[in-house]
Structure formats: C-alpha cells, structure tokens
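Deliverable D2.4 — example input (structure tokens):
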C-alpha cells in the first residue's frame, strides 16, 4: 500500500472512530472525511464549510506526493501566501501525469467551475478556488511540511467556535484554539475572496449597464476636464477578529441620479487595498466621476464580501432598490439620492461580519467640490478623506 492510499484509509478510519465517539458524546463536533475515490458533493453556498472540509481532506491525501509539495513550495515565494488551487493541481497533473493526479485535478476544476456558477461569476472568472498559508509570527520561511496543519474555516465569521477543526500532514485530527494562532504554518483552502469580489463586481456592473442603471457620462470632447472626487485616505476602525480569518475584501457601491434621464445611476468599485486593523491607507483612488451624477451629489456605501455570495442576487437586490427608490410618485428627483441609499440598505444583506455580504458603512449625499477630512460613516466603522480632483486632458 503506497503512502497516499495509507493516508486515505487512515482518514476514513479516524473519521468513523470519531463519528462513533461523537454518537457517544453528543457535544463533540462530527467530522466528515471522504475517500479520494468518492465524487464531490454539489456546491451549496449556504454550506461552504462542508465544501471547504471536503476539498481540504481530498487535497491532504494527494499532498503526500513530494512533487505536489515541491510545486506548492516553489509558488509560495517570499511574501506570497496565496496560490490558485486549480492551476496548482492542474500543472502538477500535467508535469507528473499519473492517473490519480489527473483525476484529482479534473475534480478540482469541476468543483471550481460549479462554485463559480453558484456565485454567478462563471463568465467573469477563470478560477476562484484558492489555497492560502497563514504563517506563524516571524513571517514566511522554509516550510516544514511534517509540522504544517490543514484547517477548515468555520461558516460564521462573527463568532469563534470553541475549537477550530484541523488536520496534521498525516491526516490526524487536531483541535486549534481560535483565539491563539499556532506556531506552525496553517494551510486553508476555499474561495479566493479577492478574485470572487473582482469577478462579482464585473458581473453586477455588467447587469446594471444592461438595465440602464450604470451609464458613463464622460465629456464627449476629449479636451474637456473631468471633475472627480478622489479617495485620499481611508481607515477601517475594526481590527482582526480571529487569526484564521481571511482579510476584508471590500467594495464601494456608489449611487446617485443620472444626469440625463430620471433614473438612478449605480456603480460598484473594488477597494482591494483595504484590510482589517486600525491603519490609514492613502489610495488616491478616483471613486466619483461627477459627470455621472445629477445635483452634484452621490452616496457611497462600503460592503465586505462573504463566501456565500451569489452576485446575481446582489444584482437583483440593487435593481429592486433602484426601482423602489424611484417609485414615490411626485417626489422631486433630488429626494431620490438618500432614498436610493436607504433602498439599497433594505435590499442588501446587512448583518455585520457574517457569511453573506455585510455592510461596513454608509456615507450619504456627498457633494461636489467639497473636501471631507476624516469623515466618519454612519456606522462609525470607516473614516475617509475625499478631495476634489480634476482629470486634465493630455
């Protein structure tokens, strides 16, 4: 029996033993450790924890191959903590084309495609599954694979479990303290949040453009200057919650009234630099083009991506909000601006730090040609500095 088959059999045996122990001890958390030959279960975004567990245990069986270990180590260069999973196992199966390698790579790619379909990003992303390494204090260094742990992120992000489920490199279950990071590298597998946000925002913005709610109104004359608002500084007031959590992946939903037609104009903008912790960022990012909005005013709402996000649902929610905000008969157009932000709040998920997209903060009715120094949001979770800016033609 080779080492991979031994590990696979060992995981199954330990799972059955643990499940028997759980039946005798109802308070114990059940584990599921599928054999490598079993088919993947369909992706259910509401049960992403099970998807992460299933994929992690399958990967752990294949990870006994020194070639896969070496390939991963080569791609985890200095300061690098993330690797696209489909590409990693796909290249491994191509370089070392054993049948079981190809079978596993094909399954990972199938799961990746299904996950992208469930998230509504199959047309805007080529791969969303990722592997990340949480390094111990002191930063990246040589990886001692025999000491590396493989952990499964829990479903809820707003509260820590009593213990974090993990496995050592031989497949033995390990229980980690969610409040104290171990002194060894920890590997976690799941959806790459940054790629999911990038592709998801592209999906939503495409849908808004098709519906006529995301029109660009840049000056027709190339020599005309474009008035803007630049995000000079931003600070998230919240520090990291648990050591194993992935970082914030934030985006801004900018809304106002179209300058030409009596309708909302809405755009979603990625804020890829924003991270947890009381730290100031100076992105100098142009976030408002005033040619896109009437009354020289607009709202900014900042949201955090969740693993259970289906971006088609976000598109539907924003479209419903746009329709609801304009439904008040006889209301003047300028009254739509705050009403639009409120309608989006009602239509979108707003639970803080849960597995669906969550509201970080809202800034109502920001005005053109005004400087906002250290402006605090309604929820007091964000502080921003906005400055007027003119994009000058060449």
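Example output (designed residues):
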């Amino acid at each position: 029996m080779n080492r991979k088959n031994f590990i696979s059999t060992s995981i199954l045996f330990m799972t059955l033993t643990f499940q028997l122990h759980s039946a005798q001890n109802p308070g114990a958390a059940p584990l599921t450790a599928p054999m490598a030959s079993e088919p993947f279960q369909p992706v259910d975004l509401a049960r992403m924890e099970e998807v992460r567990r299933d994929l992690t245990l399958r990967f752990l069986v294949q990870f006994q191959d020194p070639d896969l270990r070496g390939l991963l180590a080569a791609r985890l260069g200095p300061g690098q903590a993330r690797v696209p999973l489909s590409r990693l196992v796909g290249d491994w199966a191509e370089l070392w084309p054993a049948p079981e390698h190809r079978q596993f790579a094909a399954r990972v790619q199938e799961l990746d495609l299904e996950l992208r379909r469930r998230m509504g990003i199959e047309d805007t992303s080529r791969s969303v599954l990722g592997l990340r390494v949480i390094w111990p204090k002191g930063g990246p260094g040589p990886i001692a694979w025999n000491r590396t742990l493989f952990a499964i992120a829990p479903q809820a992000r707003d509260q820590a479990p009593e213990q974090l489920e993990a496995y050592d490199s031989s497949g033995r279950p390990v229980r980690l303290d969610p409040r104290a990071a171990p002194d060894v590298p920890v590997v976690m597998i799941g959806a790459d949040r940054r790629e999911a946000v990038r592709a998801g925002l592209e999906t939503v913005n495409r849908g808004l453009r098709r519906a006529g709610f995301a029109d660009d109104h840049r000056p027709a004359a190339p020599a005309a200057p474009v008035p803007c608002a630049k995000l000079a500084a931003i600070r998230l007031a919240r520090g990291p919650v648990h050591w194993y959590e992935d970082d914030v992946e934030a985006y801004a939903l900018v809304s106002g009234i179209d300058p030409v037609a009596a309708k909302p104009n809405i755009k979603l903008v990625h804020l890829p630099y924003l991270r947890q912790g009381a730290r100031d960022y100076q992105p100098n990012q142009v976030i408002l083009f005033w040619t896109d909005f009437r009354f020289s005013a607009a709202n900014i709402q900042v949201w955090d991506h969740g693993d259970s996000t289906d971006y088609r649902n976000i598109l539907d929610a924003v479209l419903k909000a746009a329709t609801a905000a304009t439904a008040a008969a006889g209301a003047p157009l300028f009254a739509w601006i705050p009403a639009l932000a409120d309608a989006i709040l009602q239509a979108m998920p707003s639970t803080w730090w849960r597995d669906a997209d969550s509201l970080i903060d809202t800034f109502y009715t920001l005005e053109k040609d005004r400087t906002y120094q250290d402006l605090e949001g309604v929820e007091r979770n964000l502080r921003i500095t906005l400055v007027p800016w003119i994009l000058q033609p060449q």
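The first helix runs from residue 3 to 24.
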